[in-house]
Each structure stands twice: as structure tokens, then as C-alpha cells.
Give the backbone structure.
Amino acid sequence: MSSDPFRHHPELRDLILDPMQSFFRTFEPSELDTLIETEGLPPGWRQPDDQREALRCALLEGRRDGDLWVFAYGSLMWDPAIRFSEVRRAHASRHSRHFILKDRFGARGSRDRPGVMAALDEGGCCDGLVFRIPQAIIEEETVILWKRERIGPAYLEVMIPVETDHGAVDAVAFIANHEADNIDPDLTWDEKVRFCATGEGRRGSSYDYVANLAAHFAALGIDAPEVTDLLKAAQAYRAAE
């Protein structure tokens, strides 16, 4: 078997950032403490390091005896930050992608210019990617993954079944936590468009985030109207400003 991680999807080679070049390789959640204080986030908003590590270990219990798959439906698709031996196109049949994360204090939004990002929610279906982490590096790579995805309360870690062209796998996924303040399933379409068009944060704009999603789906030949429709509407909003 080829050792090329992109053997199934060579078209993704130039669309996925080299993990060793990712900001998240060395990111520490404690770097956000000053921002949390100045932005007035609720006390305890950031997941304490020991609790985050306990959650990681709980999910991995009994799953360290082989390679580990990770399902990507948002920015993980183009910036996974984890080393992987294989990437596959994947279909989640029990969860769907929704733009319900209102980002006011994070990567792609601020209090004055909120952004909107995708979250995986129960019901429906969703196409994305799965990355395979070799068994030998599961510990190191999942520590990095949890530091990125479990900074605050927006997501919960679960295992979900996904289908690929090369067989079904169970994969780690980070799904919407409806108890979190920044998960808002009641966002209107107009709010989503405005937040996508104008949201800016530490890691860039919501617009670029959605455009990157659309580029990946175009490369894979995936029809994702929840992404392309939002991008087109945001483009029109920006043009009209």
C-alpha cells in the first residue's frame, strides 16, 4: 500500500495545510486568558487543563490499540494540525453541518463584529473528511486536537460512524453543545449572512472560513448548499456595502 496520505484524494494535496506549519501545533489555551479577561467572558469559560485532559482520556479509553480516525467538517478540513497517515472523503449519516456557532470572542468574530462558524449537530447527514492518526502518535496528536477543539464549551467530543469509499469507520467528532452560550440554533438567515460577511477575529474572517469550506467541497465534488448558499449571500452583502 502507498504511504502517501493523499493516495485516495490527490486533489487535496494543495488544499490541506502541512500540520507542522499549523498555528495549533504549539497553541496553548492559556494564551487566551488575557483576552478572556478583557472581553468579559464568564469566569470559567475556558476549559481547565485537567478537565480537558480527563475528557480526552475518557473518550480514548479502550481505543488506543489501533489507529484513530478524526472526522472533519469545518476548518479541520484544511488545517487539521494533526499528523495523519491517510485522508478520505467521508459521509456522516447521523449528523449535519449547521452554521449555529455565533463567534463573539474567538477565532473568527468579536463582540463588535460577530462571526458565524459551523457546528456538527444531531440529525440529517454531512459530508466531510476523515484523517487517520497512526497508533504510535495518538497521544501527542490528540492532546493537540483537544487543545484546539475544547478551549471552551461550544463542542462535545463523541465517536460517530462515518462511511468512506474504502469502508466504514468510527471517528472522533466534535459536535454542538446546546448548553453553550455561543451555540445558537435560532440564528436567522439574515444574521448568518451578516456575520459571515463582516465577522473578524484573531484567526481571520468568517467569510474566509466559509470560502475555504466551499473550495474544499468544490475540489471533492460535494454538493453542500448550506455552505455555497451562505457564501453567495455573504458575497452579495459585501458587494452592497
Q: What stands out?
A: The chain has a mean pLDDT of 93. The helical segments are 33-39, 49-60, 138-149, 189-198, 206-220, 225-240.
